[in-house]
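Quick one: structure for this chain?
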Amino acid sequence: MGVILAGLMLGIFVAAIDNTIVGTAMATIVSDLGGYDKIVWVTSAYLVTEMAGMPIFGKLSDMYGRKRFFVFGMIMFLLGSVLCGTATSITELSIYRAIQGIGGGALVPIAFTILFDVVPEEKRGAMSGIFGAVFGTSSLAGPLLGAYITDHIHWRWIFYINLPIGLIALALIVFSYKESRVHVKQRIDWWGASTLVGAVVSLMFALELGGGTYAWDSSQILSLFAAAFVLLAVFLYAETRAADPIVSYSMFRRPLFAASTVASLFYGAAFITFAMYIPIFVQGVNGGSATNSGLILLPLTLGSVASAQIGAFLAMKTSYRNVMILSAVILVIGAALLSTITPETSKATLVWYMIITGFGVGFSFSVLGMSSMHGFNANQRGSASATMSFVRSLGMTVGLTVFGIMQRNLLSDKMTDAFAGSGDKQGGALGDIRQSLTPENRAKIPEDALHKIVDALSSSIAQTFMWAILPAALALFAVFFMGRSKLEIPAKGERPSEATGGH
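Got it. Here's what it folds into:
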């Protein structure tokens, strides 16, 4: 079992590290490839395909087994990684990131489901804490590894580095994991799968293109929103008619699962915003290198690693709800503190703000994973885990897109005001922002212009963080409905089903 768990941990690590390692290097990538106005799509493209694939692969793993889809996911992820390393434009990079996302959509939920399949119930709390810590550690290693590679080798190697880790994980699972149970054959919900993917893609294109490439009231944007609405409606109806739906409404009749899933939506929206824009703040406002922006995220990730372990331990002592209330309160406080950052904010102060925020987020890595699968049998765990992961990724995708648009518009307005009367139009201002993100290029910008750029960038990010308090507060509201269930360890001589069923 130890070899299998090692393979799963490496699989989770390589998939979870991806967005943090890319986020750290994003300023350098944009400086090299251009396309600051499309920066959000590099991450969004990955999240869109990852999110759409999660419930599909989760259901398929319940039907045909976990192993084959974990292997498929790893192969797709590694293929996408190789292609990303060859990208020559932001558009190409976004397309290849979408291929990576297909693999990620299988890896994370299936890995957590295999964990529950192979680990005895009395050890699940400890192992969930370790897996949650691995998830958090990936956020720690991502910025550090990404910064070092970007500064000392080349940003393309942040993608190539996935190959050795992924191949080891693939070999461990292929040769060590033997599925023993008989899988129940079910019908594939093709209507549900196709309409879900279509709705997600239509919504993301509408949010990204609206207000920039096309006006919000243009026929193109209105058509995309209409398509998203219609496809979502068809998906919801199709799930009521499907013999074996991708997303079973019966799961949401359990208050613990429903509340855990909704909370994961808002946790994802808040966390991805901080993870994306803190490195940009450090590099663009403070003038640090990619290494500095990676190092500055250490407090955020160390806090999350510590609380992932603490959360799993507390879930065995008290209810999931009590643990997550504590988590959400700390997250709200951390988000409020981060919304006050300015160019004058000291590094020590920023460190404390991120420790608090990271500590609040980390509980969700382990506790929500356990609570979402609590009480489900082996034939339902894949769907339960994948649905929760899907909703969390939905929160991350929509949050990143919405807050990305918000930050971009705030920045554009502030840059226009700052350079009013100077003859520098919006496009030139955004060009200066892109150049200021690397120490070498910002040295070429006149001091007065650089001061205006830094103030505009800092203010736009701080205001974006202020709006990110909203999803953190909604997460706090959602966890109040999780009920009194907790992770229960079977007593000696007691059957596991007696200890865990029905909660």
